[in-house]
Amino acid sequence: MVTPEENELLTRIGPGTRMGALMRRYWQPVGTTGEMHGKPAKRVRLLGENLVLCRNEDGAFALLEESVPRGCTRAVYPVAELGGLLWGYLGPLPAPLVPQLDGLVAEGTIRILGSAVIPCNWLQIMENSLDAVHTEWLHGHFFEFIKESEGLKISLRKKHVKIGFDEFEYGIIKRRVLEGHTEDDDDWKIGHPVVFPTTLAIGNASPEWHEYRFQIRVPVDDTHTKHYWFGAFVLPEGATAPPHLLDRVHEYETPIFAPNGDFMLDSIHGQDIMAWVTQGAIADRSRESLGSTDRGITLYRRMLLRELKRMEDGHDPKNVIRDPACNGVIVLPLEGRKAQRSDGFEALFRRHQVRYSPIAEEILAVLRSGRAPALAG
Ligand SMILES: [Fe+2]
Q1: Distance from Cα 291 to the centre of ligand 1, integer Å
Q2: Which residue in 230, 341, 193 sits closest to 349, CA to CA?
Q3: Enclosing H/E stretch for 194
Q4: Fewest CB atoms within 10 Å of the CB: 111, 223, 284, 364?
């Protein structure tokens, strides 16, 4: 449990807030180079500030304050390009380097980027990623219940025998042992990370099925979060892709509510969004009662407060990289054989928001054309 004051400290990220100052030390995605092609500018709301993404006189991108009082100078923030994405930085200069996460810089991949504005505070989305057991209940028992009410009997639940959370250089590695599996399986031996502060890295890393997926949570303001679902699919051996699939990041809007305003409960992302949003615009943590399976959440909160103190003591917080020699490709741990994905690539693909990508069927066709990944669904 945290006090109301601690909850305010942890969640508020607008100008002048302490957590907002920490978040301003990190590059945040604000769009893609593809969407800005032939477009002079677009409005961006980031960390409680209204900004405009545009090109300056020398053709480089920049973020400008949208409005300034008469007689005042307009703030200009740097923008960097990496992985087909545009990243904005609102912190003190000089700006650090943009971390070269493996999935962003992997060559020859098919890249997609879904996005949506989630009407809730960023922290409850992050905490959901540190709650490993939610998959068993929300995407297991609850998904089965939804399907059963449609007359379909399926089995998705996998009981957690053990969970673990280890801090590493770039964040927290999440591990689990599911019923029928052991600590020798990838779910425990390798795991997958939350990259500090606001990215969940999932996917699959076997030779026949290699896919990077990042869920990047960008605080828009205290009660809204721009959620990016980035995916990069490595072509399996023998597969070829038409050039138009490879030349840019393919963006799309991810629907998060049904046309009648209801939650979309027949997909993994829709279930997560229901869990995030129903906690309220800013979850009241002063009323919570954490259990033993919530220890990933407490570790993450401790890390936020520790890195905040480091920054306030005059140091760079975790994952602020300045030395180019330390910014080679960051290879993140990622399971190759994940028990929760045992029903195959295509079945999982169709349960996930990736299915809303306009090129979803083309991706599946390309992957099928190679040395067959586990495509049986
Ligand atoms: Fe989830």
Answers
A1: 18
A2: 341
A3: strand 192-195
A4: 284
